[in-house]
Write a structure and sequence with these properties.
five-stranded parallel sheet, Rossmann fold, alpha/beta, 131 residues
Length: 131
């Protein structure tokens, strides 16, 4: 099973995503900002789903840039409740999802990038970072 690093500071949203995605991939949740890069390096995730607005005014794009420098092959997707930011975040990352999140749309993107298997076809496509 592939690993997803989930970076979300809202505990309720984090638990919701953990519960909805755990049947498709191993979800590794970041509980505080100090752990973001440590878990990214040590857990070797196959993908990252990160909120734009994080703890204490931190922005997910700060970490996105570092992740790209260190492991550019790992797809990093962003989430935001700020609809005006979605186009910019989508162009910087491997996809941007608006809150409230639609799990079916997330799953389709995860299938596209090879993070989860397409249960209809029984396999994941090549890891493509199509936007």
């Amino acid at each position: 099973m592939k690993k997803l690093l989930l970076v979300e500071d809202d505990d309720a949203v984090c638990r919701y995503l953990e519960n909805r995605l755990k049947e498709y991939c191993e979800v590794i949740s970041v509980k505080n900002p100090e752990d973001i890069m440590r878990l990214f390096e040590n857990e070797n995730p196959d993908g990252v789903l990160m909120d734009y607005e994080l703890w204490g005014g931190l922005k997910g794009t700060q970490f996105l840039e570092i992740m790209r420098e260190r492991r550019s092959e790992i797809p990093v997707m962003m989430m935001t409740g700020n609809h005006g930011m979605a186009p910019e975040l989508g162009s910087l990352s491997d996809g941007c999802f608006l809150k409230p999140l639609d799990i079916e749309i997330l799953k389709k993107r995860f299938i596209q990038i090879g993070l989860i298997q397409d249960k209809i076809n029984g396999s994941a496509p090549e890891n493509s970072r199509n936007k």
